[in-house]
Structures are given as structure tokens and as C-alpha cells.
Amino acid sequence: MSQVQLIARHTIRPGQESAVFAALAELITAARTEPGNLAFEAFRSMDDDSSYVLLERYASPKALAAHRATPHFQRYLVKDIAPRLASRVIEEYDVPE
Fold first, then answer.
1. pLDDT at residue 97 greater than cutoff 90
2. Would you call 21 helix, strand, or coil by DSSP?
3. Contacts of 74 (CB under 8 A, 6+ apart)
4. Is residue 28 within 8 Å of 42, Cβ to Cβ?
5. Nearest 10 degrees: CA dihedral of 26, 28, 33, 36?
6. Cβ neighbours of residue 66 under 8 Å, at least 6 residues apart?
7. Do 3 and 57 meet the contact criterion of CB atoms below 8 Å apart?
8. What is the mean pLDDT of residues 49-69?
9. If pLDDT is split at 50, 70 and 90, which confidence band does 96 have?
10. H or E element, residue 12
């Protein structure tokens, strides 16, 4: 199986930045410990404090699915972050071998 590159573009609702970035720090720390996670980085927009991008790489589509099933993904992303977002766009790419 080939690796998966994920790019998630998030825009935070006004006034929710502190809560989102606190939860995001916890999510990143936990995700980096997953056996199938190869990279997990967040970058805040230089033009808009409410926008950031996540660059994630997984060893396989199965590893990405396992990530999405973890308790930390469910807690931090699904319950803490997603409800505070104005928009969320996720792009998934196959990484050629």
C-alpha cells in the first residue's frame, strides 16, 4: 500500500481561536505517537489568524483510518475543534512510491 498525504484547511469561528489551538496542540502530540503516522504539522496563516493548515502523512490508507478511530481524534478534533470551525476542507493524496 502507498502512503497518504492529507492536507486539512481549517478556518476558526471568531472568538474560538484559543480553544482550537489548545485542542490542536493536544491532538498533534497524541497523533505523532501513532505507529502509522509519519508526520503531523500545523501552520497558521500569515494573513489570517483564524486560518491554519494541517499537513499529515500516514503509512497507508489503513493507518489514516486507524488515526480517525483513535480516542484522541474523536475527542480533540470531532468534539473540541470541528464545532468551533467556520470551514473545513480536507484533501487526501496518494504518495507515489
1. no
2. helix
3. none
4. yes
5. 140
6. 34, 36
7. yes
8. 97
9. confident
10. strand 3-12
Q: What is the DSSP string of 39-97?
A: EEEEEE-SS-TTEEEEEEEESSHHHHHHHHHSHHIIIIIIIIIGGGEEEEEEEEEEE--
pTM of the model: 0.92
For the chain, the maximum distance between any two Cα atoms, rounded to a whole number of angstroms, is 42
Position 30, amino acid: A
Rounded to whole angstroms, what are the CA distances from 6 to 16, 30, 47? 24, 17, 22
Contact call for residues 12 and 84 (beta carbons, < 8 A)? yes
Nearest to 81 by CA among 52, 48, 40, 56: 52
Phi, psi of 54 (to 5 degrees): -110, 130
